[in-house]
Design brief:
Elements: H1 4-14, E1 18-21, H2 23-26, E2 41-44, H3 52-64, E3 68-74, H4 81-94, E4 99-103, H5 117-122, E5 133-138, H6 148-164, E6 169-175, H7 180-191, E7 198-203, E8 206-207, H8 208-218, H9 224-231, E9 240-241, H10 244-257, E10 263-269, H11 274-285, E11 289-291, E12 298-300, H12 303-308
Parallel strand pairs: 1-2, 1-10, 2-3, 3-4, 4-5, 5-6, 6-7, 7-10
Antiparallel strand pairs: 8-9, 11-12
């Protein structure tokens, strides 16, 4: 069984977790203050076909409700440089945004002048906007569109340009099911001279069937085998999986590394629902945990969070 020290390390790791919503899922939340601690970073996901005005509206609402919105800025979906500037102005001036996630996006062919995020950084389009931090995507298992080596090459260039322009960078990773790819990736980044704070993507409690669907759609790498092994048992497809083993392993790594650990926080992907994931994650962060029979598992002890994980 997990020891008290191990569970305390998990709780410490979960403090300050971030989460994401889409404009559509945000509409289902009556008030974010009911499910999240004020000051929580909330990413606003951009999906192909999304109206930028909806992102600005959602970001403003999050600001008004005491959260820190981190809207996704998908550069390949921006039709023109002027349109990009208008969008950024709406986010920063109208919605009070101080942090963004700069990504290429899910469209293969650029709708405008930008094919990748490096071009945006080099063009200076983020200069003088008052942004406190710019997040970029991290791919511990590689990007299926580009490949691992090319992704690392792009990341090195982003770090170089951001350094030249004094733009604070941070990483938010794609979700993973096991800790090893993240640990190996962080070591590889350090070998390339890249040292950035990392928010590790964690799939919140959700049915195994749901997790498999998202993992396949997002091109998750070898760690997908963790969830596929469970999905092989048809009777377990509707069972809810919680990321307890992943969190225990990440917390153990963080304890070993100490101050040298690059992991800044957990970034929760709410595949089982925003409210349920928030409740479960908050319980973990508060240390409302108990050991399970397996040494690689734990349970939450709050009634609400227990329902989220069932």
């Amino acid at each position: 069984m997990a020891t008290k020290a191990e569970l305390d390390a998990v709780a410490d790791l979960a403090k300050g977790f971030s989460i994401e919503v889409t404009p559509t899922t945000a509409e289902k939340v009556a008030d974010f203050r009911d499910i999240l601690t004020p000051g929580t970073l909330v990413n606003v996901t951009f999906l192909p076909g999304t109206d930028n005005a909806d992102t600005v509206k959602t970001a403003k609402r999050l600001t008004d409700e005491g959260m820190v919105p981190v809207p996704h800025v998908a550069v390949r979906s921006i039709a023109s440089e002027q349109g990009f500037r208008t969008y950024l102005k709406g986010l920063t001036q109208d919605a009070g945004v101080t942090e963004i996630l700069l990504i290429g996006g899910e469209v293969d062919d650029p709708k405008g002048p930008f094919a990748d995020t490096v071009q945006v950084l080099e063009a200076g389009l983020l200069d003088n906007l008052g942004l406190k931090r710019v997040h970029v995507g991290g791919h511990p298992e590689g990007n299926p569109r580009v490949g691992y080596d090319k992704t690392m090459e792009f990341l090195k260039r982003k770090v170089e340009v951001a350094g030249e322009k004094d733009i604070p960078l941070a990483l938010i990773t794609q979700f993973v099911f096991e800790a090893k790819p993240v640990i190996d990736w962080i070591a590889d980044m350090k070998s390339h001279g890249i040292e950035l704070p990392v928010a590790v993507g964690v799939p919140g409690p959700a049915k195994i069937k749901t997790l498999v669907s998202y993992a396949k759609a997002c091109g998750i790498g070898p760690s997908i085998n963790f969830i596929l092994r469970q999905a092989a048992n048809v009777t377990k497809l509707l069972t809810v999986n919680q990321p307890d083993t992943l969190l225990l392993d990440l917390a153990a790594y963080r304890t070993r590394e100490g101050a040298a650990c690059a992991i800044d926080r957990l970034h929760m992907y709410p595949f089982g629902g925003v409210a349920k994931t928030s409740e479960w994650s908050t319980s973990v962060a508060r240390g409302h945990l108990a050991p399970a029979k397996s040494p690689t598992a734990f349970t939450v002890t709050d009634d609400v969070a227990l329902k989220a994980a069932s």
